[in-house]
Structures are given as structure tokens and as C-alpha cells.
Amino acid sequence: MDVEFSEEQQEIRRALRDALDKQSDSPAVRAAMVTEHGFDPKVWRRLCGQTGLAGLGIPEEYGGVGLTFAEVVIALEEMGRTLFPSPFLASSVMAASAVLHSGDEAACAEILPGIAEGTTLATLALAEPGSRDVSEVSLTATATPSGEHRLDGVKTHVLDGVAADLVLVAARLDGQVALFAVAGDAAGLTRTQLPVLDQTRHQARLDFDNTPARLLGTPGADTAAVLERVRQLTEIAVAAESVGGAARCLDMTVEYSKIRVQFGRAIGSFQALKHRCADMYVQLETSRSALYYAAWAATEAEAAGLDVDPDAPGAGELPVMAPLAMTTATAAYRAIAEETIQLHGGVGFTWEHDAHLYLKRATTSALLFGDRTHQRERIAALAGI
User: Fold this and answer.
1) Which tens digits make up the pLDDT trace of 118-143?
2) Is the pTM of this model over 0.90?
3) In sequence order, what are the residues at sequence separation of 6 or more whose Cβ sits closer than 8 angstroms to the Cβ of residue 138?
4) Is the pLDDT score of 84 beyond 70?
5) pLDDT at position 1
6) Angle of helix 318-343 versus helix 355-365 axis, rounded to 10
């Protein structure tokens, strides 16, 4: 196993960091997060045009850059570092992965080029009230005599659900899990913005009432496997964002400790603060190690396809490593963000300082797939404990 990044990958990181430092500084983030959709479409299109951001993990045959999931993780780390408000997670990770793995070549050729350009904003609607697991999908799909399909039910906590031009929906068709594509302006679809703690990532409730939908792939075990793979990739994506955000919090704290003077000396010279910063660093590096191992496992699994040998090195570990990396990273992120606020003293508690934005992202990221108890039970079950 080699989890070292190549010079080309490091160059991708440097280029993205430079672009995001210019386009996603604190004033830009704060301005974007209070808009209707929670991000600046002009900035999103500009970055997509300059860096190919939206299509990093999409194959070249569908208009993407054709890189591996490792490069996607690098991009997510850098976006997490600046809290970049964008539809990348929903569109370029969740939705693109669902379409790509669906096995529906026509849908891939039709949908993925727009996602890769950043002109089509897509999302995946999986969670339902009281449930976020693939096995518990209950929204119903019905086939009409003409061969069309209609959806009825509710999806909730859909990332960028109001802004999306295209919604991919997990539903039950004749008792089997199936994947459908629904236009954002489809008849019978009602989209409601949800109040959220983290304003840099908008979520929505989607109500389907006899809503027309297009079936992707084949219903059944294959679609359930596709959605499980998408969930695993999303968990790693959230871990990457969390590592990037936690690293930024630590950097802010160390920098502040060098310039804040108390009792005639920089507070960073006090042993108690040194110990707390050291603890933050250990938590960060632990979560980063888990992330990179999971990213390597995902890259191996993507090369192997959905039918992965559970005993295969790396690839077979993905089902366990993905949620483990996410829970490790989000827990570390929240702890580090809380320490960042504490060690900044009074200024850390103010609206004007960015520390609270990172804490809010850390808190909500940890709950995207259910509470910690549920996540730990899932990891234990997957590990056979």
C-alpha cells in the first residue's frame, strides 16, 4: 500500500488551494451562505472552468477530467479548509457516482457531461424521515400502463435539494430498491428549504406527489449495491472535508497563540496551551491517517467495480473503512473546532470570527448519516463484531 501523494497530486492541491484562497475567503463565504441556494453560481462556474473541479472524478468519455477518487479527496480537503459553499458534494460526488455506477450507459452519456461542466446541478435523495439507510427506503414508485413511472413519498435532508436541476431518488418499485431521475421542476415535486445549523450547506425536504420519474439501471440488488457504494464514497468525502476544516482550525489557533500576548508574553509559550495544541494535532493526524487509508481503499474498489472480493487488499475493506474514517474525522473536527473557540478567548465566541462556522460544519457533518450510536452500530455490524 502506498498512500503518499504524487507530485502531480500535490500540484493539484496547490492549484486548488490557491484558487480557493482567492475565491472562498471569509467575506465570500459569508456572502454566499445567506443567498437562496447557499453558494455563488458565478464563483462555482469560474472554478469549474479554470480547474475542471466539477468533473475531477468523472471519466473523460463523459466530459470529465478522468482522475481517481484520490484526487477527489484532495479537492474535498481543500474545500473543507475554506468552507467553500458549493454543490460539489451533492452533484460531483453523490449524484455523479450514482449515475456512473447505475450501469445505464444512456443516462451516463446524457447526465454526466453537464455535471462535469458544472452547468447541471444534481443531488441524491436517499434519506427519509426517521431513516437514512438504503435498506429502509420506503418512497414508492409505480409503473403506469404507458411504461412511465411516478413517485410518491418524502425525502429529507437532501443536500442542495432546492438548487438542484436534477434529483436522483431512491425508491421502491415492486418491493425492490430502484434509482430514478427527476427534473427539478417536475410536476408534483415540492421542494422546501430546511432550517440548518450550518448555513454553508443547504438542505431541503422534497415531497413527491405522483411525480414523473425516469428509471435508471435495473431495480433490485444491483441498485442497492450502487447506493451503498455511493454512501461509502460520500462518507469518505465528508471525512476529507472534515480533515481540511480541522487542519484550518488548528492553523488558526497556532497562529493566534503566537500573536496574542497575555502577562507580557505570547500565550503560545504557556505549557498548558502547548499541550492542548499538541492534543489537537494528534487528533488531526489520526483522522487524516484514517481518511487516506479509506481513500486508498476506495480507489482500489473503484478500479475493481461493484463486485469486490471482501478479502481483496484495500478494496475489500472499503465498507468498514468508509464509515470509520467519517466518524473518526468528524469527531476530531468537532473537538478541534471547540478547542479553537476556547483558545481564541472572547473573540472566538463572536459572530465576526470564523471559528463558529467551522464548529457548525463539524456538528452537522457528523450527523449526515445518523447519530454516532447508529454509526458505531453499523461499523460493528460491517466488521462482524
Assistant:
1) 999 999 999 999 888 888 899 999 99
2) yes
3) 128, 131, 153, 172
4) yes
5) 53
6) 150
Beta bridge partners of 262: 265
Q: What pLDDT digit, counting tens, does each position of 225-249 carry?
A: 999 999 999 999 999 999 999 999 9
- What is the Cα 178 distance to its own chain's centre? 22
C-alpha cell at 24: 472562498
Residue type, 16: L
pLDDT score of 312 more than 70: no
Q: Specify the CATH class of 222-382 in words.
A: mainly alpha
Q: Does domain 122-219 have CATH number 3.30.300.20?
A: no
122-219 and 222-382: identical CATH topology: no
Confidence of residue 313 (pLDDT cuts 50, 70, 90): low
d(CA 98, CA 92): 10
**d(Cα 95, Cα 84) in Å, to the nearest integer?**
19
Cell (9 digits) for 222: 444491483
Give domain limits for the chain.
7-117, 122-219, 222-382
Domain 7-117 fold: Butyryl-Coa Dehydrogenase, subunit A; domain 1 (1.10.540)
Question: Hey, what's the cell of 126?
Answer: 436517499
